[in-house]
Design goal:
Two copies of one chain form a homodimer.
Chain A (H helix, E strand, L loop, with lengths): L2 E7 L2 E6 L2 E3 L5 E3 L3 E3 L6 E9 L1 H16 L12 H26 L5 E9 L5 E5 L5 E3 L6 E5 L5 H7 L6 H18 L7 E7 L7 E5 L4 H20 L9 E2 L4 E2 L9
Antiparallel strand pairs in A: 1-2, 1-10, 2-11, 3-4, 5-6, 6-7, 7-8, 8-9, 11-12, 13-14
Helix pairs in contact in A: 1-2, 3-4
């Protein structure tokens, strides 16, 4: 599996992904899932990819080739980012169609999902989720993030902390926490992490960095977070057991003889 | 959906479940998923249930009836808790088989999953997960908890904080946090929460309590946790962006002009 997310804040966009790819538990490898593109000076575009590695690699290769060759439709010809999302969806659908018969015979899915993020001059920065079916949705003010892949483990920390007023540094730290929660709970998502930020109206390529599991910063942020959670947990008040009517046993239970902490 | 969990600590077992049941988003209701039984004085047995409500209700009804009527095999005749797990699995399978043809015609699954917990005199307290197929596993020292239903959202907080040396009060507070994370991120899991504790070697019925969303304690624990997480988050160090070789763009990126927090 995979876990990628993008957070859209007032100051720009934070991108993050793991790098683990697996075909069964006996073939685990590391692949980049954060893709940048050499577009014109009026736009910055990046993609995060999840799903069939064969499909995502072919989709990214076609998008790069059509951009370089100046195809009739390419990343530079779209005048709005939603048109880029639609274009990515069409390329994804055409790649999936091309392999449908072959994959179908093996009962394997060639589906792929993308997060598209960036800015085209004249618009605010935006993030889109492009479904395997080629349609897409945009993140909103109320839900300023998008996730693809193994998204459930890392969602609670986002839902507790994400707001559009986060700085880009905050958004990257939050992304690392969301990824680290997922990595801790699911071996199909693994380090190193690829991180990237785009600053609103900069129209510069994404600034990217890779965070390895052996990096002292990764250990530090995990230790600090674990310690803070443990401290916060100890400080929480205890549940008060009520004396309740006991439906199942048709009797009244008593206050519990719990062991003090 | 549903989310139930049981944590096995040195002092006993904590049980927790949500109460939301739904057949589609337009039929949402509230049902008890934590079940206790009037067993003999040498044992305490409880079940948490997830999956088809029809199946889980029928399974619990049959188990109660066979216990009351003193059937050849019932909760009181098993001399080990793993035999109870096997018995619950067989009842579950027989209920599912009885409705297989009818459900199959509608393309609906009658599968159900259970967590069995308790103690039979002569053994330590134990928790088992009974699969829809009737087989079962036991929690271990290394992973002293079991989850059924919508389990991913609430797993990271368990993986960060659970240890067998937690007190029963700790285990209940942790269960509430795990459930509250799930409730926040997934509308198919909802309050009120049913909570229960069993104290090692007490052989008393579970002490139970219900926690409503309107209870000031529920608001308090959520507020405190959110605030502690926000404080901890602000205190985390920033990721240091490296000056890295830029593979995608074949150029070097510069240190980012990020907005200070």
């Amino acid at each position: 599996m995979t876990y990628c997310l993008a957070i859209q804040v007032d100051h720009g966009i934070a991108f993050a992904s793991d790098t683990r790819s697996n075909a069964g538990v006996d073939y685990v490898s590391s692949y980049r899932k954060l893709h940048r593109f050499r577009t014109g000076p009026d736009r910055t575009i990046a993609l995060l990819s999840a799903g069939s590695l064969a499909t995502t690699q072919e989709v990214v290769s076609i998008i790069r080739k059509e951009l370089r060759s100046g195809a009739e439709e390419n990343l530079d010809t779209c005048s709005r980012l939603f048109e880029v999302a639609s274009y990515v969806g069409r390329v994804s659908q055409s790649v999936q169609r091309a392999h449908l018969a072959g994959l179908g015979r093996s009962g394997v899915s060639g589906e792929a999902t993308f997060i598209l993020g960036g800015q085209v001059r004249g618009e605010r920065p935006r993030i889109f989720l492009v479904y395997p079916q080629g349609n897409f949705i945009r993140a909103s003010e109320d839900t300023p993030y998008l996730q693809i892949g193994e998204s459930k483990y890392g969602k609670p920390v986002l839902d507790r902390l994400v707001v559009p007023s986060l700085s880009l540094d905050d958004a990257i730290r939050l992304s690392i926490l969301s990824l680290s929660a997922t990595i801790k709970s699911n071996v199909s998502v693994g380090p190193p992490l690829d991180l990237g930020i785009y600053r609103t109206d900069s129209f510069q390529p994404l600034v990217t960095g890779r965070l390895h599991a052996t990096d002292p910063y990764y250990a530090k942020i995990n230790e600090s977070w674990n310690q803070a959670l443990a401290d916060a947990f100890v400080a929480l008040p205890n549940f008060r057991w009520p004396v309740v009517e006991d439906q199942a046993l048709e009797s009244r239970s008593v206050l519990p003889p719990v062991t003090p902490r």
